[in-house]
Structures are given as structure tokens and as C-alpha cells.
Specification:
It is a single chain. By secondary structure, this protein is mostly helical. It is 49% helix and 9% strand. The chain has a two-stranded antiparallel ribbon with strand order 1-2. A hairpin with a 5-residue loop joins β1 and β2. α3 packs antiparallel against α4, α4 packs antiparallel against α5 and α5 packs antiparallel against α6. It starts with 28 loop residues before the first helix and ends in a 16-residue tail after the last helix. It holds the Pfam family SprA-related.
Length: 235
């Protein structure tokens, strides 16, 4: 059994024109275009801006963050150069300090103590020696002037061993020289006591000869110059 929808019949109706001030014509596509384009044709729209490519953005950023005009280095480059210079100076100082203290220790032998260094951390995180010292035994050999002389000779050589002795090195050398002179005097007195029968007239010139010989031997050690203030004996 077929079912057909029952639709009422529709008869056409005529709509009378609206009354009022006037009629409004339906908007057409040409009218819409005219309204949207009624602005000044010289004014660019937001969508009319040229598209910036990735290469152009990179070039613009490079100019903003790169080197200054005229080849001037940037702040980062200046900082890197300063750190490199500091590192070079620390390495040079480290080599100089180690060579200086090792010279003391090598020549001092049994009379020289261990080396003690003062360190500074470099920009690379490593420790570099910027100072150092070596202890030296300056005590005379009790009851043996000749052994004292030999010891002080080695101590003085150890103090002056570096290529550029410091003021403290020269002070130690001067102190060793003073102890050596005292030992020379003791040795001269021992030589005098060996001949108790010698007359006073005989011992006078002998003492002067011993003293003169002592100063000549000391002056001939390592180019020692009595006029050099760096070798002045200290108390």
C-alpha cells in the first residue's frame, strides 16, 4: 500500500510595495565590493605588507647582534681576549715560580726543605703557582767551624741559585755569609791555640794574615762583592 504525502495547494500571492521614505535595493556583490573598497586606495591594508623571508630576518638579526661597524670588537670578544691574556700570564708566572723554587731546593740539598706554593685559580678552573718558598737550615755546626763554613757555602749558593734572586734570597745569602765569617774567626783562633809558645810579636802578623786570607777566600766565592748591598751581613 503506497502512502503519498498530502500537501496543501499553495496559490501565488502578490506582495504590495512597502511604504515609507524609500525602497532599499538588495545588496549585490558589486555593492559589497564598493563598500569594502571605499577607503583611500593609497592607504595600505594590514594584509598588504610584504612577507619577510627567513633569510631576511636572519640578516636583520645578524646586523643587530653582530660586530659593530668599522670592525670594532664586541663586548664578548673583548672579554674573551682579557681572559686569554690572564691565562697566559698565569701560566708564565707558574713556570717562573716553579723554576725559582726548584733551583733553591736542588742546590740546597740536605739543607733545603720542601717547596711550599701559593696558588691562584685561573679562568680555566686550574690552579697556578703565583708564589713559593723553600726553608733553608742556617744553623751552624756546633763545635766544627770548618763544617759550618762548608755548610754556609752551600746555603749561600742555594739562596743565589735562581736566575733572578729575590730580596729575601739575598738576605738569606747575607746571613749565611755572616755565619761563615764567624766560623772563619773561630777557625783562626783554633789555629792560634795550636802554637802556645809563639811570642806576641809572632802571633800578631799571623792573625792579620789569617784574616786577610779569610776575606780573600770569601770574596772569591761566586763573584761575591763586598760593595754589593745585597750581600751585606745582617744581625
Amino acid at each position: 500500500m503506497a502512502i503519498s504525502p498530502a500537501l496543501p495547494s499553495i496559490s501565488p500571492t502578490t506582495i504590495p510595495p512597502a511604504t515609507g521614505r524609500g525602497t532599499m535595493a538588495p545588496a549585490t556583490s558589486s555593492d559589497s565590493r564598493t563598500i569594502s573598497e571605499s577607503r583611500d586606495p593609497e592607504t595600505p591594508r594590514a594584509t598588504d605588507q610584504p612577507t619577510e623571508t627567513r633569510g631576511e630576518r636572519g640578516e636583520r638579526n645578524g646586523k643587530a647582534e653582530g660586530d659593530k661597524p668599522g670592525g670594532e670588537p664586541t663586548g664578548r670578544q673583548t672579554l674573551d681576549e682579557a681572559l686569554l691574556k690572564e691565562l697566559r700570564d698565569l701560566k708564565a708566572r707558574d713556570r717562573e715560580v716553579r723554576a725559582h723554587e726548584q733551583a733553591h731546593q736542588a742546590v740546597g740539598g740536605q739543607y733545603a726543605g720542601s717547596v711550599s706554593y701559593t696558588y691562584q685559580r685561573g679562568p680555566d678552573g686550574n690552579q697556578y703557582a703565583v708564589g713559593g718558598e723553600v726553608s733553608i737550615d742556617l744553623s751552624p755546626v756546633a763545635g766544627d767551624p770548618q763544617a759550618t763554613i762548608d755548610k754556609m757555602r752551600q746555603v749561600r749558593a742555594a739562596a743565589m741559585a735562581p736566575a733572578q734572586p729575590s730580596g729575601q734570597d739575598r738576605a738569606v745569602a747575607a746571613q749565611a755569609m755572616q755565619i761563615m765569617l764567624q766560623a772563619q774567626s773561630e777557625l783562626a783562633l783554633e789555629g792560634q791555640s795550636v802554637s802556645p809558645k809563639a811570642t806576641e810579636s809572632d802571633t800578631g802578623p799571623t792573625d792579620r794574615n789569617v784574616a786577610s786570607s779569610t776575606y780573600r777566600s770569601i770574596s772569591g766565592m761566586g763573584g761575591y762583592d763586598m760593595a754589593d748591598p745585597g750581600f751585606t751581613a745582617v744581625a
